[in-house]
Amino acid sequence: MIGHPHSADRYNRSMLPVLFLYGSLINNVRELIANHNPAAAEQQVRAYQAQNGATAECANALSWLARGALDARKYDRADSWATETRKLSDALLRQRKLDADNYLPIAVGASIEVHAQVMAARGERAESVAWLREQARLFAGTSITERIRKNINLLSLEGKAAPPLEEAEWLGVKPPSLATVKGHPVLLFFWAHWCVDCKGEVPILANVQRAFAPQGLVVVAPTRLYGYAAGGEDAPPTVEKQYIEKVRQQYYSALPGMSAPLSAANFQTYGASTTPTIVLIDRSGVVRLYHPGVLSEAELSARIRAILKL
Q1: DSSP for 203-272, written as a single string
Q2: Which of 21, 180, 277, 285 could crosslink 190 through cysteines, CB 3.0-4.6 Å?
Q3: pLDDT tens across 144-189, in order?
């Protein structure tokens, strides 16, 4: 879902300059898209563009138009907006690095994601994966690596052998390697210390763990450092690691045996730009579910039962 369910009736042309001065173009566009009013959202973007020119904020807003059209399955429109977002972003990237700007990583990442998903929706899955891999090489070492890998995995990881996890550093009990738990079904739960949805998934995971432990289910919960701790304050790795452990003990106590490998490399490999990301691996070590986002207990249990053939 995009945006928040507030009424869009309060927007009109006379308010546009005021909104640009005192509001957020991006929030306004997201709100209008959430209320199924893409025409008004585009109107705001075009008015802003005429007043302010081609800025990174404009590129970001355009990317939300692309995502809204994709959600509505208006693929031609989605691809058109994704192309415009990328063209504007590429022009800006000739003047600055991607991660030197707060808006550009979101805009570029979304333009790549939308174009890839449109290609897949048109039946061009192999071409989409090849193009995404090209983009991954182009943006290697940037903040959008995980997002690009997520889209590659969405199109190609299920049915493949699960990539190994890096386990040199961890919280909780020492994590097993995926090789040593072959023969068991494995649930990977990628989480972040700041992630509200991750905390909301804990009771579901606890119930699932209790239900399927007799069948050998192994739960591993990779996480990573983000460079900040409580309140978004910058924190060195040692401080942030202590903070993550505090979060783990406070919010994940229903999962007492939860092993949490601590590695950004795991997030890149599995494309866990969305948290939580849930991955189910069967007894032979093959990925059977790759799901960025939350899952209900019924959905998750059904997928585990399918793996176990219950």
Answers
A1: HHHHHHHHHHGGGT-EEE--B---SB-GGG-B--HHHHHHHHHHHHHHH-TT-TT-EEEB-HHHHHHTTT
A2: 277
A3: 999 999 999 999 999 999 999 999 999 999 999 999 999 999 999 9
The token pair at 286 is 């093959």
DSSP structure class, residue 140: T
Q: What does the alpha-carbon distance between residue 191 and residue 40 come to, in Å, rounded to a whole number?
A: 36
- Residues of the chain above pLDDT 90, percent: 90
Q: Which residues touch 159 (CB under 8 Å, ≥6 apart)?
A: 286, 287, 288
Could you tell me the end-to-end alpha-carbon distance of the chain, in angstroms, rounded to an integer? 33
User: Which residue type, as a one-letter code, is found at position 73?
Assistant: R
The set of residues, in sequence order, having a beta carbon less than 8 Å from that of 142 and lying 6+ positions away, is 98, 99, 105
- Tokens 């979060």 sit at which residue? 247
